[in-house]
Amino acid sequence: MVTVRAPATSANLGSGFDVFGVALDRPADIVRVSKAEQTTITVTGVGSQFIPEDPARNTVGAVAEELDAPAHIEINKGVRPASGLGSSAASAAGAAVALNELYDRGLSRSELVPIAAEGEAVVSGAPHADNVAPSILGGFTIATADGVRSIETDIPLVACLPEIAVSTRDARRVVPDTASIPDLVTTVGNAATLTTGMCRSDPVLVGKGMDDPLITPARAELITGYDTVRSYALETGATGVTVSGAGPSVIAACHGGDRRAIGSAMLDGFSENGVDARVYQVSVGNGATIL
Q1: Is the pLDDT of residue 36 over 90?
Q2: Tens-digit pLDDT profile for residues 193-202
Q3: CATH number among 3.50.50.60, 3.60.15.10, 3.30.230.10, 3.30.460.10, domain 2-151+286-290
Q4: How far is it, in rounded angstroms, from Cα 88 to Cα 33?
Q5: What are the residues facing 4 on neighbouring strands?
Q6: Could you list the residue ranges forming a coiled coil in this record (predicted)?
């Protein structure tokens, strides 16, 4: 039996749609695997009642098939489904690391990323690596067709999760099909700024690089109270605010001493719009850990 802790993540970070991601030090999924003749899945924890245990409809079932590693897989969900914090990716990442260890497949962490991404295709329709990459590798990750790069960084963050749901499929439907040259230039510049900030562990540069004129405005329309939450966070000291992944979580970069006040302001922003929420004061964390 192998047990793995796989962390929540935040993808896109505004300017890095389908490319950027960061591992969060909490919350996390716990994935436990043991050898079996065929794959079976049990799910407990937050939101488990909404997660199918049929291997053909669960991210970890696809991972087990990709690795040719049938197993009984137990998932204790710490990352709420449809949260924008990489819930399905955490399960897929945890299963990939655990099954690789259980069956001694000998694959590197980087080699496990595209395998876990195949699990993501079950819920999003395509094998995106922007969440599974940081959940496996940790740190700030850049996932492209040429592979994945991981950077260690130390950026204080606040993630605010409202009690509303936004499915990944719905969030992808609102993404615009085209972009103007000025918007494209702005986005590229912001992505470069964010990457520089991550390399330097500079929350000011990271915050500036979160601005995005293309994807975030469309997705923000799906999140009740987003504009208020963003405004309050910036007024309280956040260096940048954007939608986390597909939403509805909202993530803010900040200086460490500001996290408590910013989290409280974000909660107030949702509350004023009639939405309950919870807040996580987090940092960029490590990838999946074998316990």
Answers
A1: yes
A2: 999 999 999 9
A3: 3.30.230.10
A4: 17
A5: 31, 290
A6: none
Active-site pick, 153, 168, 187, 236: 168
Pairing relationship of beta strands 71-77 and 40-45 according to DSSP bridges: parallel
Residue 195 is a catalytic residue = no
DSSP assigned state of 80: P
Residue ranges at the known binding site for ATP? 80-90
Q: Which of 120, 153, 187, 216 is catalytic?
A: 120
Beta-carbon contacts of 154 under 8 Å, excluding residues fewer than 6 positions away, are 201, 283, 284
CA distance 16 to 240: 14
Provide the annotated binding site. 80-90
3-state secondary structure at position 203 = helix
Residue 148 pLDDT level (bands cut at 50, 70, 90)? very high
| Spans of all domains in the chain | 2-151+286-290, 156-283
Q: Is pLDDT above 90 for 42?
A: yes
Predicted local distance difference test score (pLDDT) of residue 269: 98
CATH code: domain 156-283 is 3.30.70.890
pLDDT one-digit tens code per residue, 82-92: 999 999 999 99
Residue 195, helix vs strand vs coil: helix
**What pLDDT, on the 0 to 100 scale, is given for residue 27?**
96
On the question of pLDDT at 242 being above 90, the answer is yes
